[in-house]
Specification:
Blueprint: E1 7-11, E2 32-33, E3 36-37, H1 38-48, E4 53-58, H2 73-81, H3 89-97, E5 99-104, H4 111-116, H5 119-123, E6 132-135, E7 139-142, H6 147-158, E8 161-167, E9 177-185, E10 188-196, E11 207-215, H7 218-225, H8 236-245, E12 249-253, E13 257-260, H9 264-279
Parallel strand pairs: 1-4, 1-6, 4-5, 8-12
Antiparallel strand pairs: 2-3, 6-11, 7-13, 8-11, 9-10, 10-12
Length: about 290
């Protein structure tokens, strides 16, 4: 399957309450990591893997973060008049190379529901036969090989849904979904279930769910039948458990680093990390 036939779904309907008051007016997906919004890192990751079609799940109750990837001729013209047009050249090249589709999640009914409302947009051109990616925009990855591409390569071997995972210190396991593992071959694990935010005693392993997912289209029919779970929301983890029961869910230890920029501390850590990559020794002058 050629990468350019893939679609990436990016849920952007969250209200970003952990970053109030700034998210009262600025979507959390547009909070900057150095000079780029966090959302752009995920799009660039998938683009580097060959993806050209992006479905943004947005909320009617906040500004549309996907507008960052729409052409703005008036602003571009002002920048050009002031000799600053080249500063947007890289972004404009990205914008010209991708297809942007926006679908609304009218009510905040959970991540599983956000993925489900993208169904028609994902299946539009491929008759619902091809797998697709889900990228959480507040999880930022860094590695020599894009995490999205790593998952795509594993799918070629397994033919099943495969999600990114990583080892997490025990004291932090209660913050994440944790995989129970049936068997392993190197970095590839056969998942038997996902336990959401377990206590240390309940955690079945130290392999946690990271915000990168590759699903086969059958997840849509599973989500359609999934009853609301914790918080009255349709949980993506519940659909993942259904896939695990029929032996169609894999967890892959991706190569690279991840940052949870949806958490204020993780956001600061990511800024420091990427600033060091960009500015090097200049950071030591702080």
């Amino acid at each position: 399957m050629h990468p350019q036939s893939w679609t990436a779904v990016i849920p952007c309907a969250g209200l970003g309450t952990r970053f109030l008051p700034v998210t009262k007016t600025v979507p959390k997906e547009l909070l900057p990591l150095v000079t780029k919004p966090t959302l752009q890192y995920g799009v660039e990751e998938a683009f580097a893997a060959g993806v050209r079609r992006f479905v943004f799940v947005i909320s009617p109750d906040k500004p549309n973060p996907a507008a960052h990837f729409l052409p703005n001729s008036q602003y571009q013209r002002l920048l050009t008049e002031r000799g600053k047009g080249k500063d947007l050249a890289e972004l404009n090249q990205l914008i010209a190379s991708i297809e942007v589709v926006c679908v609304e999640q009218k009510k905040p009914l959970g991540l599983g529901h956000a993925v489900w409302v993208a169904k028609d947009a994902v299946c539009k051109d491929v008759a619902g036969k091809n797998p697709f990616l889900v990228l959480l925009p507040d999880v930022v990855m860094d590695g020599e090989i894009p995490c999205s591409l790593q998952l795509m390569k594993i799918f070629e071997k397994t033919g099943g849904s495969v999600n990114a995972t990583e080892h997490t210190p025990q004291e932090f396991l209660s913050r994440f979904g944790v995989y129970a593992i049936e068997k392993s071959e190197g970095r590839l694990h056969w998942a038997s279930r996902v336990v959401e935010k377990p206590s240390l005693e309940e955690a079945p392993s130290d392999l946690t769910v990271v915000g990168r997912y590759l699903f086969t289209p059958e997840v849509f029919s599973i989500l359609e039948k999934t009853a609301p779970g914790r918080g009255g929301e349709i949980q993506l983890a519940d659909a993942m458990n259904t896939l695990a029961k029929i032996k169609k869910l894999y967890a892959y230890e991706f190569e690279g680093r991840s940052f949870d920029t949806g958490d204020p501390l993780g956001y600061v850590q990511a800024n420091i990390y990427f600033a060091q990559k960009i500015f090097g020794k200049e950071m030591l002058r702080v």
